[in-house]
Amino acid sequence: MKYQTRKPALILLADGTIFHGKAVGGKNGSAFGEVCFNTGMTGYQEIFTDPSYFGQLMVTTNAHIGNYGTTKDEVESDSIKIAGLICRNFSYHYSRAEADASLEEFLNDNNLLAISDVDTRALVSYIRDNGAMNAVITTEVDKLEDLKKRLSEVPNMNGLELASKVSTKEPYFYGDENASYKISALDIGIKKNILRNLAERDCYIKVFPYNASFEDMKAFNPDGYFLSNGPGDPEPLTEAIETTKQIIASGKPLFGICLGHQVLALANGISTYKMHHGHRGINHPILNLVVGKGEITSQNHGFAINREEAEAHAEVEITHLHLNDHTAAGIRLKDKPVFSVQYHPEASPGPHDSRYLFDDFVAHIKNSK
């Protein structure tokens, strides 16, 4: 039985704390990154392939991972983006008819190190108390001193630019070229389901690299612009921030999600900061201040915008608040068709409470024509 023959493994946190587990499958070695956790009870394949998680060791709080296998339709990018997986119970067998492979096969195909049999409740509690930090997961359990040295050399997520690691290298098109609306999208870690949602709303999208200039994006003659989600600290994205300033000045509709929300804030002089342990899950409560309704949302971010600065900004209005910690979760410009949210309205696998935001974006485009 695989369960009986799996190698011992461990998690070494930057502060020296150790949690023990066992290697999943035959993959050996070590993987470094920032350790964080996601509370979603489903959607693990979407999480693992989301570019926003690039460079992170993902702890899944759901007790069973892999039980419904994987399919080619449930990916958010062309490969796994997390640095490693940490879970409680790993399912080598799956029971969903639609699945085309096991999670073990999916991880092996992507050469990802995973460990299971970890006390994830204790680990998540530790992260909540002490904050997200760098860590290493490893089967090299007899090389602790070397691992500590290597771990100390891993850069901190604060100040780390990662969009360039996941962005497209060349522009590409998505959707029907005969669609009613054209969108120029800045890829700083874009998810496929965002493109699907735009295409479903009669949009033809040209996706540009993270460092595209406004002139590049303008040359497509778009009806609107989009700033995507993505990984890392938003502050080093100076080119994207400058491009955003020029998009705003153009007067065209602009919609930003997650990292794009933070870039929009920075383009308006609102600072960002690294959160203690971030928001990652599919059950985060949001209050839409414009209509007074609540939304259950999908979130995955480790940075946020400064709420006090947003409230004091004469040209900015806060439109959404996170109800757990009252961080600013959405903003819009008062005199332009420009808005953004910190969470994921395209939410794959769900919830879908916030998909109206794509409709709002298209409505802005229609009104601007």
TrEMBL record:
Signal peptide: none annotated. InterPro entries: Anth_synth/Amidotransfase, CarbamoylP_synth_ssu, CarbamoylP_synth_ssu_N, CarbP_synth_ssu_N_sf, Class_I_gatase-like, CPSase_GATase1, GATASE. Residues 7-138 form the Carbamoyl-phosphate synthase small subunit N-terminal domain. It catalyses: hydrogencarbonate + L-glutamine + 2 ATP + H2O = carbamoyl phosphate + L-glutamate + 2 ADP + phosphate + 2 H(+); L-glutamine + H2O = L-glutamate + NH4(+). Belongs to the CarA family. The gene is carA. Residues 1-181 are annotated as: CPSase. This is Carbamoyl phosphate synthase small chain. Its EC number is 6.3.5.5. GO terms for biological process: 'de novo' pyrimidine nucleobase biosynthetic process; 'de novo' UMP biosynthetic process; glutamine metabolic process; L-arginine biosynthetic process. NCBIfam families: CPSaseIIsmall, PRK12838.1. L-glutamine binds at S52, G230, G232, L259, Q262, N300, G302, F303. It is an enzyme of class 6 (ligase). Pathway: Amino-acid biosynthesis; L-arginine biosynthesis; carbamoyl phosphate from bicarbonate: step 1/1; Pyrimidine metabolism; UMP biosynthesis via de novo pathway; (S)-dihydroorotate from bicarbonate: step 1/3. CDD domains: GATase1_CPSase. It comes from Rasiella rasia. One of its GO terms (molecular function) is ATP binding.
